[in-house]
Amino acid sequence: MSLLLKDFWFQASPEKAKEILVFLSKSEDKKQFLEIIMETDDLRDYFISYAWILRNEPELIELLNQEDLPLSFLLNFIYHGLGSYIKEGNTDYIVYFSRMAKHISANQSLRLLIEEDITSKDPALKIQLLANLDAKAWEVFFNKIDEENLGMDRLIHLFTDIPKQDLNRVFYRNPTLYGYMRMVMVLSESVSEEANHFLTEIEILLEGISVWEIFAKQMKNEFPPEVERTLQPKSRNKNRLSILLHELINTKEEDRTNAMDFLLLHEAILDENELRIITHALKNYKEGEIAFF
């Protein structure tokens, strides 16, 4: 099988690599193929590199979230991307984990949290995976905590031990996370004062997030993303980008990154390219200047 040969990957084009991803996503033997690839350094490096090039392709995202995918491959993919992100001159790895995690499903996030030790050693990744969980996955995760007698306070410590700005980013990504944690605390036999204080702070944060939720819905109604995505970037509605820029200019600088991540997640900002354009515009904005969209 050519995908197990180093020379194939050395000469492969992105189009050929995409064909292999499609093949793997439908193959009953994907687990065996990927385990062999992961055990061979050269094969692993080439394959992960091509997977990263194709990171926004639906075929790759589908493969990443299949239940029989070896988690070693998923983790290698995540950390390869982190290396590329840092090489590009970026330093905020929390932003990277936040944006990467949105490609990982609730079920796959749960698998990583329960089955992989690395998520215990890397709190930044663990926080973002927790933010991915839906109600069903949270129930499984909390049952696991209860089985291992870890206690709710230990989970609260995981959140309170990270910087406030990074913590805010987690709840911007998943405002319903508060509801899950509140539910578990209600069911817990005892809750510390620290845990209660933590949730009070999050309640205040959620009031600000609700404003962005309303704005994102208004933007999607006014400028349907399914229509805008069919257009080339230069042909998209410039009023939409100007409105986004205006709102973000009037947002506190320390809150802008979280707001932009939220708007990207909720399709008011359509893709990473638009995000870069808006980030560049904000960086070069001076009061009194007119938006250049």
Tell me about this structure.
It is a single chain. With 293 residues, the protein is an all-alpha fold. The chain is built from 19 helices and no strands. The chain has helices at residues 6-11, 14-26, 30-39, 41-53, 58-64, 71-87, 93-101, 106-115, 118-121, 123-132, 135-147, 152-160, 164-173, 177-187, 193-222, 225-228, 238-249, 253-265, 272-284. The radius of gyration is 21 Å and the shape is globular. 24% of the residues are buried. The mean pLDDT is 82.
- Average pLDDT works out at 82
Tell the overall outline.
globular
Give me the count of strands.
Answer: 0
Percentage of residues assigned to helices: over 70%
Q: What are the secondary-structure elements, in order, as H or E?
A: HHHHHHHHHHHHHHHHHHH
Distance between the termini: 50 Å
- Indicate the low-confidence ranges by residue numbers: none
Global Rg: 21 Å
| SS strand fraction | under 5%
Quickly give the structural class.
Answer: mainly alpha
Count of runs of 4 or more consecutive helical residues: 19
Tell me the major beta sheet.
none
Describe the structure concisely.
By secondary structure, the chain is an all-alpha fold.
Quickly list its features.
293 residues; mainly alpha; 19 helices; 0% strand; globular
Please outline the helices and strands:
Layout: H1 6-11, H2 14-26, H3 30-39, H4 41-53, H5 58-64, H6 71-87, H7 93-101, H8 106-115, H9 118-121, H10 123-132, H11 135-147, H12 152-160, H13 164-173, H14 177-187, H15 193-222, H16 225-228, H17 238-249, H18 253-265, H19 272-284
Helix pairs in contact: 2-4, 2-5, 4-6, 6-7, 7-10, 8-10, 8-11, 10-13, 13-18, 17-19
